[in-house]
């Protein structure tokens, strides 16, 4: 059952990200300029994530996770930020260790929305993978059987 829920969450996330590729012109213009955050597979969640690639001095790079970009926006909104926000996801394969959840407050407002979308024409994928430390040996029929305890599901 948990696997089915996980698959549904991943599917909804992929649908959400494809739907969110709506151009910013279709969203009402914000009264203040949008603040942009970048997510990249080579990012670092300890940095601000305000640049699409690492800068020469090495003091800012994209963040590594959607969660960090979302959390940074939440923090700014709690401090009464009236900005629109855009999160641009760089190309690559992102391995999710937990479900990415957006709450109603994450959408912003009509005049100051929050938009998640792909960076330019780059392709990205989100994959939920649970790594196995070792595969069991093949049984008499040549197949492998992996049993995952309820604590690992």
Radius of gyration: 19 Å
Helix content bin: 10-25%
Number of strands: 5
Assess the beta-strand content as a share of residues. 15-25%
Main sheet specs: 3 strands, parallel
- In total, how many domains does the architecture comprise? 1
Round the mean pLDDT to the nearest integer and report it. 75
Cα shape: globular
Q: What's the arrangement of strands in the largest beta sheet?
A: 1-2-4
Structural class: alpha/beta
Low-confidence parts: 14-30, 149-153
What does this protein structure show overall?
The chain has 153 residues and is an alpha/beta fold. The protein has one domain (2-152). The protein has two helices and five strands. It has a three-stranded parallel β-sheet with strand order 1-2-4, covered by helices on one side. Strands 3-5 form a two-stranded parallel sheet. Strand 1, helix 2 and strand 2 form a beta-alpha-beta unit. The protein starts with a helix and ends in a 25-residue tail after the last strand.
Keywords:
153 residues, two-stranded parallel sheet, 5 strands, globular, disordered C terminus
Layout of helices and strands, plus pairs?
Blueprint: H1 2-19, E1 35-39, H2 66-78, E2 85-89, E3 92-96, E4 114-118, E5 124-128
